[in-house]
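User: Hello! I'm new to structural biology and keep hearing that structure can be predicted from sequence alone. Could you demonstrate with TonB-dependent receptor plug domain-containing protein? Please show me the input and the output so I can see what each looks like.

Assistant: Of course. The first part below is the input, the amino acid sequence of TonB-dependent receptor plug domain-containing protein. The second part is the output, the predicted structure written as tokens.
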Amino acid sequence: MSRLEPSFRRFYWLIALPVLLAFGGADPDFPTRLVERLQAFNSAFPKEKVYVQTDRPYYTVGETIWIKAYLFDGPLHQADSVSKVVYVDLVQIDSRKVMVHRVLPVEHGYATGDIALGDSLASGGYLLRAYTGWMRNFSEDYFFTKPLTLLRTDADNGPPVTGQPTMPRPDVQFFPEGGQLINGIEGRVAFKVTSPAGKGLDASGFVLNSAKDTVSGFSSKHLGMGHFPLKPETGQLYTAFVKLADGSMHTFPLPEARPEGYVMVVDNVTNRDNVRVYIKNNKPASVQGKFTLIAQSRGKPIQVALGDVGKKAVVMQIARQLFPDGISQITLFDETNQPVCERLVFVDKNNRLTIHLKPSKPVFSPREKVQVDVAVTDASGAPVRANLSLAATDAAQVLEKEPYATDLVSYLLLSSDLKGTIEQPGYYFNPANKERVPDLDVLMMTQGWRRFVWKEVLQESYVPAKYPIEEGLTFSGQVVRANQKASGVANLTFMVMQPDSSRDVLAGESDENGRFIVQGLNILDSTKVLIQATIGKNNRNVDVKLNEFYSPTLTVTQVPYNPLVFQRDELADYLKRAKEYLDIERQIRQNREILLKEVTVRKKKEAPADSRKIYGQASNTLKVDQTMMGGAMNVLDLLRGRIAGVSVSGSAMNPTVQIRGSVNFQGVVEPLFTLDGVPVDKSSIVSIPVFDVDYIDVLKGANAAIFGSRASGGVIAVYTKRGSPNYDYTQEKVPGTLVAILPGFRLAREFYAPKYDQPKPEHVRPDYRPTLHWAPMIQTGEDGKAQVTFFASDARSPIRLLVEGASVDGRPGVGKAVFEVK
């Protein structure tokens, strides 16, 4: 333990006792209660983890993000956790807005999906965020997040290559091991030096006391992290002088030491069989009692031990074999049963899968059929049944910009249990990195753990969770009387009208306040439901109200840096190929439109004049009929794909609308919205029932000029049936009845890849796809083997394979391979 060892030679040794065994004659009340409350807390609030693999880290508008979500229970990492619904958001980092929201069904712990990137999305940094409804009860810090970069073929996506920039003042943090410095007791101080962008910086330096004497020196080991010994003295303040690689020097104060207390130092590096915990205190002789040490991993107790406060130096040993693979937490409680020191340790048992990928030959020709044999084994070489996902990409177009990027292994065992962003997490799992074990131990000293606080754990009772575990989709609401007061117990009938024309009928009662909830639904996106309510003897004079469906928000996003920064022309080949592909797709659509125009009716029937209009001819008009309503969650959904040049993206509750050509330097300029001739905000349009819309006019360019500068983005004019002078009031809705559109599961599309062994007319098109194949559901058999086939493209460049997956019992694995196409 470097310079700390001499001062810790004279220790009283105390072997940690197994959980729930006798405590050697000491008062067992607190240790027993500690274990019981920890188990009760984790039973009341079980943790879940979500991981998402994507086919690549960056895209252009018009492309599709292909995703595979893995859901694990938190303590044991077993697949198929209790939740059956996963939410996936695409978040724009700069604006913190959720641009796309997906609801995916989970089967056996897995979910597949895709996100089509509309042409209204701006280039820049995005976050892919994934979580379950149950995870919303806890901090967003433990939602899965993955930075993605979105590029545009019609914009400059990267800065020019410049000289070395001037090094700005770094962010330097100091972390006394265990949490505190105590006067007169030597301990260790870990540090982390990062740039303003959040990336680690090499640094060295020294520490001076108030008398300007040097008391310690230090140098970073990996990504700006390291540690140094320090024995603070009474009356002294300490200042660190940090020198960066460019020679600049910066000063930072160290945390002040306390006059008395405990210091805990953990040795997780030098001993192969045990984790050693060194505990010192300088409590006065009048202080008597026992301190308690507990080791636990993801809420599961590992060991508990007691020590005598009168013994000022104690070392406790915990057998390494008792720890699970991954992060564990060691906490010290003082003689008053208050947590005073805490430390994370990582125990690597190499209990992971090995995924072998073997192409049928080392070199292929363009458009040749590729066969890849997949074999999964455990650490002993035995075959394993596993569920995997594979992405095959063109290595010349899809660059590996971030070294040691997050994968399923590093996320499940490391990043998912830590707050903040871990830089290069894969570094700590590569055996080729000889210093990875001590470097990982320093990471444990600098990266905080806050999945729970002990004060909450030790409570005798817990506040019920706000969000339930979702075994299917859920909606809720309330039945109220005409005066808007609670109806009392109401009889309810629900008719769910599936898109395939099937009907599911449910019946039940509300509670005494008229509230109701329907759980466990398995419905597809935009499903219609009819709700009928009565009270007493068939009294239908009530209103049925649905609670607002979940609208994703973003409170805090921990993204200290965007790992993908491109220099100009670095992605020239990728952007060129993407533009060619999008141009071909656009030309195909235009040809289809021309063909349609050749068969359209030559004379258009003139519509009767509408007194609500102040303009003449609209650029486009959409007459709303019953067939359009089934897939529309709001009025603006009616426009999706139905009017050329009008793009609707984002979530159902907060869509973004753009009329082609309405762009300035700040991004999208949305159109002016009017309702029955009166200008309104977008939220008013979204709140209108789809069934109340008669037709929608779209005004572009000169047609919108009558509205002035406020219509620089065009005009969306919505006209309702109720607002029409010819509206038939006999069509008012039936009392006690509500028809609504429910947001359901979004089923994944099938990844399209051409098969060149079957000649087709479209094969004359050039093929330079960046993602050649995406196979999200590969299942190995009892022999641990599977096979994947696809076809190479026209590109004569290497193809990179990435496979991630896990066994049912939660052992993760990652496999990689590269082969040539010439």
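User: So the tokens describe the shape?

Assistant: Right, they're a compact way of writing down the 3D structure. Reading them back into a model, for example: The radius of gyration is 31 Å.
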